[in-house]
Structure formats: C-alpha cells, structure tokens
Amino acid sequence: MTVAIDQSMAIRHRRAWSSRVLAVSEPWLYASPAVILLSAILLVPLAIGISYAFRDIQLLDPMSGGYVGLSHFSEIWNDANFWNALRNTLQWTVVSVILQFVFGLILALMLNRPFPGRAVVQALVFLPWAVPAFLSGLNWAWLFNPVVGPIPHWMVALGLASTPENILSDPSHALWGPIIAIVWWGIPFFAITLLAALQSIPKDIYEAAEIDGAGPLQRFASITVPFLAPTIAITLLLRAVWISNSADLIVVMTKGGPADSTQIVASYIFTQAFQRLDFGYASAIAVVLLVILLVYSALLIFVRQKLIKAG
Amino acid sequence: MKGSPFRKTAFWVFHYTVIGLYVVVALFPLYWLLKVSVTPNNLLYSEGVRMWPSRMTFDHYLSVIHHTDFPLFFRNSVIVAAGTAVFTTLFAAGTGYAFSRFVFRGKFWLIGLMLVTQMFPLVMIIAPIFRMFAPLGLTNSLTGLIIIYTAFNVPFAAFLMQSFFDAVPRELEEAAMIDGATRFGALRQIVLPLTMPGIAATLGFIFTAAWSELLFALMLNSKQDTTTFPVGLLTFVSKFSVDFGQMMAAGVLALIPVCIFFFIIQRHLVQGLTAGAVKG
User: Which terminus of chain A, N or C, has fewer Cβ atoms within 10 Å?
Assistant: First the structure.
C-alpha cells in the first residue's frame, strides 16, 4: 500500500519536474532554430571580422594572417579616401533619411483618409519598394543617361543645364543621383510604417478633440504627432543605420566615382574587400563604421529616454 | 467635415493632385524601363525622349530569353528567393510565437541580439563568411546563399510574425488547451490558420528581399551556373554597356515576380504592422 503511494507520488513528482522543465524550455524550443542560425551565420563571422581588423588578411597571399596590432587603424587615420568617404556617408545618410521621411509622412497622411480608389493608389505608390535596390539604381542611372534617359533633356528644357549631361559623371553633383534613387525607393517604407502607426490611433480621440473645438492643425500637433513620435524615432534610427550601411546602390550606379565623389564608407569597404582583396583593412574600416553607428544609436536611444521621461 | 462646399472641393482637388504626383513619380521610372525595352534599336537614339516609340518590338525580350544565360539566372534566383522565404518564415514563426506568447528569462537579451544583427554593416562579415563557407563547399552554391539570406532576414521577419501572433486572441488557444489539446496542437490547429495572411505577407516580403540581394551573391558566387539575377544583370551592364534595349528587357523580367508578390501582400503588411503598433 505505502509502496504504491510512494510510487504514485514519485511519478507525480517526476511529472511536475518534467513539466517545469518543459515550461522553462518551451519558448526556447520555438526560438532555438533562429538563435542557432543567427549565432552561427552572423555573430561568429562578426567576431571573426573584428579579429581580422587586427590582422593582415590578403585573400591571394597565403603568407598573410599575422597580427598587426593597430596598424590598420593608424592607416585609416591617415587615409584621405576614408575621411572623404565618411563625409559623403554623412551627407548621403542625412539627406536621404530626411527626404524619405518627409515624403513618406505626407504620403501616409494622404492614404490615412478614405477616398475612392485608395486601395489601388496604395498598391501603386508602394510599388517602388518591390523594385530590387540594385535595379532601382540601374533604372535611375539609365534615366540620368542623356543617351536613353529623359532627365538631362528636361533639365535643359527647364534651363537648369545648358547641355544634356549625365549628373552621375559630374563630381560636384554625382551623389545626388544615388540619393534620388534611394529616396524614390525608400519612401514606401516610411509610408507603410507611418500609415500603420496612424491607423492604430483610436478614432474617438479625434472626435472628442473636434467636439472640444480643436482645428485640424491643432489636432495634428496634439494628437497625431505625439502618437507617431515613438514610431518615427525608431524608424529614423533603423533607417539611418540601414542607409549608411547600404552600398549596393552606389556600387551599381557610380562605383564610388567620379573621382571618389560618391564613395561612402560602406562602398569603400566593399571596394577594399572585393577589388583589392584586402580583407584585413576592409574589416578595420568596418569596425570604425560599426563603432560610429553604435555611438549614434546609443545617443538616439538616450535622447528618446530623456524625452519620454520629460513628456 | 465642416467648412463650405468650396473649401471641401478645394481640399479634394489638392488631395488628388498630390496623390496623382506620387503615383506618377512612383511609376515613371518603371514605365521608362518598359518603354526602352520595347523600342527598336534604330529608334532608340532618334526618339530618345519620346514618351512612346512609334514602333514596338519584342526582339529584346526574345534575344534575352534565347541568347543569354538569363533563364538560368532567373531559375537560380527563384530557387534562392523561394528557399529563403520558406526557411525564414518557418524560423521567424517559431521565434515570433515565443516572443508573443511567453515571458521567459533571456527574452530581453534575445530581442537585443536581434536588434544588434540589424545594426552592423553587413559588408563587415563578407570576408569571414567567405572564409567560413569556402571549405564547406558553400561558395558557388545556392544553398550557401539561402543560409546567409535566411540569417539576415530572420530578425525583421520574427518581429513581423510576432505582431501577427499578437493579433490572435490568447483565449482561443487557451480554450483549446482546456479541451485537451497540447500547446503545439493549439498552435497548429487554431493559431496558424488565423495568421495565414500574415504568413503570406512575410513570405512575400522575404521573397522580395532575397530576390534583390546583390553584394553577397556577387562575392560568394563566381561561377555562371550559380549566378543570381541581380549579379547577372550587373555583369550584363558592364559587359554590353551599349545594348540598352536588352538590359532593360532583362530588368523588366526581373521585376515581374516581385511586383506580383508585392501587389498582393502590401495590404497585409500594413495591417500586420498596425496590429503590432496597437500593442507596443
């Protein structure tokens, strides 16, 4: 009798223990494939990449691989091309993000109001985002090309240029080519995100404000903006990081030229790795870029926390 | 809306004008791509700025399909993009479900880890990935690309899937679990059917992303039989930089699958993000 009770208690105890283990590990069971993949394919290479920054890694030189300490970084410090690329990165990122944000916000506000044909319009204006970034780059490069593209001819017709010339081969304006391409391509992303945020604002708040006599501008400033602010902050953060990291449009449209006038840090890293096959130096530049982006993100999160506390 | 009829009309005229401008700016570059791709070579320069050529031809498409390797590149890209979409959505659904339904130790760090992977310059890991993949036979391989693209896309897809799961009321699966279903059974029979539109949106979104990737495909695969469409198009541009008609025909062909996908999924994408925004 007692033996039977003992046994059944032991079973119950074991079951409780195993169900506790299951309860703790169950979320990890669902998440583990992704965790393993991310660690193996992103984090391990990231660690290796950071170590490359301190080593001499030339793909075609089997004798390379020795540790060189900080010499890559002192080389970067004296590399005029790097500083030029950093300035271009700043201009490229700031201008692109601001333009994408402003045009995306206007579009989202327009689409937030029901009107006949909205579904079709929405599908059409979001279409650029489906265009592969490299193809958007090629497409704009063709539009800027006076041989097959209309834009140089329009510029002449508008009196902005005297002869139809390719903006991409003009060192003082070439960066505008990729900027226009990435803005065209990226507006839908901001519009989609902001539209989703707009649609999640409860409608009755607006109605209440209207009954209280608030005008459209007042409603926008005191309801829409505060509701959108968190989305805007996080979207701006992620997009700025993403844009400063994205090299493909530049690689496709100008390869950093003419005369390095469109070289950004990300495309410079790619050229160092791909053309010179100097993985050590490329990794060192990437580490510098990573540190800059981390500092920038930390600053933005810090400011956001301050604002939330103040508000 | 208050205000006189005149102001109302003026408002809608303004609204439709701005919307119209957006549509024109969004579509014009694509229209131009299409236009040049059907312009015969002898009219290309003489009718350079005309809105539509006086004579149309599909020769550029025929020669791209019959005389180049683009059908092969197209096939490679379909395999890579579809494989990436399936695996990413599968992995992201698991992670998104864990984020949505469990409070667990390490969740904060896991979310942090996912955010960090979105931060660093991906060009940074090109070299290590190359060194890691070469001995494993994953360079010059479509499998290698699927693995990398899946890793890139899982974090964003996981957050997207989480918001779709958040939109499904917990009570539904709790009821099923009281009736004796296991949690996994409830997930499979109740939650998954309800999140189907979200899963479709994620699949389509990841498909477009993988379809577009250029730099890793360029670095890791150098052989013709594993070249993807973006790389093929880029080498095409540098090799035959004079044949605009064929290039743009190839460009239009590259656009077709992603545009179809995106046209279908974009509404679900907005809905999905709205569902997530309500909660967070």
Answer: N
Spell out which residues of chain A touch residue B99, defining contact as CB-CB under 8 Å.
Answer: 31
Higher pLDDT, A300 or A171: A171
- Cβ–Cβ under 8 Å, residues B120 and A49: no
Tokens 């779709």 sit on residue? B164
Predicted confidence (pLDDT) per residue in B167-211, tens digit: 788 888 888 888 888 888 888 888 888 888 788 888 888 888 898
Nearest CA in chain B to A40: B151
Sort A203 into a burial class: Cβ within 10 Å, 0-12 / 13-18 / 19+: exposed
HEC sequence for chain B? CCCCHHHHHHHHHHHHHHHHHHHHHHHHHHHHHHHHHCCCHHHCCCCCCCCCCCCCCCHHHHHHHHHCCHHHHHHHHHHHHHHHHHHHHHHHHHHHHHHHHCCCCCHHHHHHHHHHHCCCCHHHHHHHHHHHHCCCCCCCCHHHHHHHHHHHHHHHHHHHHHHHHHCCCHHHHHHHHHCCCCHHHHHHHHHHHHHHHHHHHHHHHHHHHHHHCCHHHHHHCCCHHHCCHHHHHHHHHHHCCCCHHHHHHHHHHHHHHHHHHHHHHHHHHHHHHHHHHHHC
Q: How many CB pairs under 8 A join A and B?
A: 266
Question: Higher model confidence: residue B111 or residue A307?
Answer: B111
User: Given an 8 Å threshold on Cβ–Cβ distance, is A297 in contact with B233?
Assistant: no
Pairwise CA distance, residues A167 & A154, whole Å: 12
Q: How far, in Å, CA of B223 to CA of B210, rounded?
A: 19
| Rounded-to-5 percentages of helix, strand, coil across chain A | 75, 0, 25
Cβ–Cβ gap B148/A283 under 8 Å? no
| Fold category of A79-310 in CATH | MetI-like fold (1.10.3720)
Q: Would you list the domain boundaries of chain A?
A: 79-310
Distance CA A101, CA B41 (A): 40
**Geometric angle at alpha carbon B148, from A266 and B253, rounded to 5°:** 80
Query: Is A300 part of the contact surface with chain B (CB cutoff 8 Å)?
Result: no
Of B102, B115, B120, B75, nearest in space to B211 by CA: B75
Contact B121 A107 (CB under 8 A): no
- pLDDT tens-digit map of B37-61: 888 877 777 776 777 887 888 888 8
* Chain center to CA of B86: 13
Nearest-CB residue to B119 (from A113, A131, A294):
A294
Nearest CA distance, A8 vs chain B (angstrom): 22
CB B115 within 8 A of CB B186: no
Q: What is the spatial distance between Cα B173 and Cα A89, in angstroms, rounded to a whole number?
A: 49
Predicted confidence (pLDDT) at residue A184 exceeds the cutoff of 80: yes
Question: CB contact, 8 Å: A149 with chain B?
Answer: yes
